[in-house]
């Protein structure tokens, strides 16, 4: 605990990790360069048909595959202590298996990792961020149990290849969002519309794959490499619509069970899904005349295997919504239950993005309580601007600043053990189905120019000051990035 005066200064613990995040498909481009294999986002975007805003693709994106040095300059200008990025699976293993290894892919990531370390920046490596090799998808992707073993092998290959230098691993990014968007509603690659079961099935296989990958590290690499492994979870906060209504409180809690405890509880508590999910889905499956629940079950052996497979909690917070009791919510609640927002909450670049910095503090307190005070890293938090963005992005900075104040209170007053904070994103990039229409970068990327120049937003100046001071005295008048 810190003294109140320090709290007022919004201080952060010593050695706090200050980072920014990107992901391979969203920034690299070079979709077919140097032997890279096809992945599901290449296929999805090349199909056209307005799957993506203006039929844009990540073929070029920010060009980071050839412009890595430009990204490194941004990272150094911010003074980050950590940089989180992901590996493109099909750049390393074009068909997803170690049957053929693409040396050029290894060289690229070696260059990134080595230059980060040479600059005293800790690499945080996400093994998988939404971009499955097409060849693995063709075998069933996350709908298939076969992908569990294929992913485990891929993770092993990553530890073997980069683990001498990388000590902070995230096996996969947001299995909850990935399975809902990619395998249930199909608005993300691989575009599968499998209502009522797709997300449960994909999420189940991702949980097993993550657990296998964690055990692989734990058994074969931890002793010699001394790193840590976790998984990142998308976690919105939900408020009861009427705080005095027990039913609305239950609705908010149920929503969070379906959205984030679905993935977090098996890993952090007992290897199994939340009771409310098991109950509601099986009851409703029966009503539909099915003789098994649409929510897959873990065997006892699998439960024991999944439980405890994260060395810390990687939380990704963007926004908050309100929930209230409704007839559908009591049948089978779903990820898509009615979201309500306070009219006083400002809206950022996208209709679903409501600016609620205090939601993070509530969420952190809640996670501390139900997950036994884990070590937490906020591995993503950010604010989109709609295209065309303004360089003087003061609204975004206000969001980040207010969020950091809430975070500081969570640490200093509520005693939540948060060890780091990462902005999504380092640079504007390919925002999935939104293409380049939503910009999350601390640095602007001019997608109209072939050289794809990066320029700092106002937020970059401010954030670099926070990193330098390890806290938030703000506002600063003028700062020169070197
Ligand atoms: C994902 C990112 C995405 C960001 C902003 C996160 O859920 O991990 O890939 O760009 O949100 O939407």
TrEMBL record:
PROSITE patterns: GLYCOSYL_HYDROL_F1_2 (PS00653)
Keywords: Glycosidase, Hydrolase
EC number assigned by the record: 3.2.1.21, 3.2.1.45, 3.2.1.46
Family: Belongs to the glycosyl hydrolase 1 family. Klotho subfamily.
InterPro entries to which the protein is assigned, alphabetical: GH (IPR017853), GH_1_N_CS (IPR033132), Glyco_hydro_1 (IPR001360)
GO terms under cellular component: cytosol; membrane
Any one Pfam family match given in the protein's UniProt record, by short name: Glyco_hydro_1
GO biological process, one term: carbohydrate catabolic process
EC main group: hydrolase
Organism name: Hymenochirus boettgeri
Protein name according to UniProt: Cytosolic beta-glucosidase
Reaction(s) the record says it catalyses: a beta-D-galactosyl-(1<->1')-N-acylsphing-4-enine + H2O = an N-acylsphing-4-enine + D-galactose; Hydrolysis of terminal, non-reducing beta-D-glucosyl residues with release of beta-D-glucose; beta-D-galactosyl-(1<->1)-sphing-4-enine + H2O = sphing-4-enine + D-galactose; beta-D-glucosyl-(1<->1)-sphing-4-enine + H2O = sphing-4-enine + D-glucose
Domain of life: Eukaryota
MF (Gene Ontology): beta-galactosidase activity; beta-glucosidase activity; galactosylceramidase activity; glucosylceramidase activity
SUPFAM superfamilies named in the record: (Trans)glycosidases (SSF51445)
């Amino acid at each position: 605990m810190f003294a109140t005066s320090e709290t007022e200064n919004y201080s952060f613990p010593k050695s706090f990790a200050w980072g920014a995040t990107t992901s391979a498909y969203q920034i690299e481009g070079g979709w077919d360069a140097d032997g890279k294999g096809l992945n599901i986002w290449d296929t999805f975007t090349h199909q056209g048909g307005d799957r993506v805003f203006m039929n844009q693709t990540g073929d070029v994106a920010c060009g980071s595959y050839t412009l890595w040095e430009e990204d490194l300059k941004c990272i150094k200008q911010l003074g980050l202590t950590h940089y989180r990025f992901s590996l493109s699976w099909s750049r390393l293993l074009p068909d997803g298996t170690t049957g053929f290894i693409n040396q050029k892919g290894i060289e690229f990531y070696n260059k990134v990792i080595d230059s980060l370390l040479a600059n005293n920046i800790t690499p945080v490596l996400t093994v998988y961020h939404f971009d499955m090799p097409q060849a693995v998808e063709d075998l069933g992707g996350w709908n298939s149990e076969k992908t569990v073993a294929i992913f485990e092998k891929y993770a092993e290959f990553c530890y073997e290849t980069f683990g001498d230098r990388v000590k902070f691993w995230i096996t996969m990014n947001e299995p909850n969002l990935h399975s809902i968007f990619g395998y249930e509603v199909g608005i993300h690659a691989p575009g599968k519309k499998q209502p009522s079961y797709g997300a449960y099935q994909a999420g189940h296989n991702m949980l097993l794959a993550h657990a296998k990958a964690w055990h692989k590290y734990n058994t074969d690499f931890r002793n010699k490499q001394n790193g840590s492994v976790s998984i990142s979870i998308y976690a919105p906060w939900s408020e009861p619509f009427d705080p005095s209504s027990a039913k609305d409180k239950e609705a908010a809690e149920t929503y969070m069970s379906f959205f984030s405890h679905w993935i977090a509880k098996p890993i952090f508590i007992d290897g199994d899904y939340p009771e409310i999910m098991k109950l509601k889905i099986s009851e409703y499956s029966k009503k539909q005349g099915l003789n098994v629940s649409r929510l897959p079950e873990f065997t006892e052996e699998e439960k024991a295997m999944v439980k405890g497979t994260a060395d810390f909690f990687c939380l990704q917070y963007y926004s908050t919504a309100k929930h209230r009791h409704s007839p559908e919510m009591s049948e089978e609640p779903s990820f898509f239950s009615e979201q309500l927002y306070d009219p006083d909450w400002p809206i950022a670049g996208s209709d679903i993005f409501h600016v609620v910095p205090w939601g993070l503090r509530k969420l952190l307190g809640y996670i501390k309580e139900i997950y036994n005070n884990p070590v937490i890293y906020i591995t993503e938090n950010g604010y989109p601007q709609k295209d065309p963005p303004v360089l003087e992005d003061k609204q975004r900075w206000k969001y980040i600043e207010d969020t950091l104040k809430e975070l500081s209170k969570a640490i200093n007053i509520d005693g939540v053990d948060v060890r780091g904070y990462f902005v999504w994103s380092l640079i504007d990039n390919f925002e999935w189905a939104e293409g380049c229409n939503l910009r999350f970068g601390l640095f602007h990327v001019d997608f109209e120019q072939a050289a794809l120049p990066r320029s700092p937003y106002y937020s970059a100046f401010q954030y670099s000051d926070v990193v330098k001071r390890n806290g938030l005295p703000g506002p600063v008048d003028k700062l020169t990035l070197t």
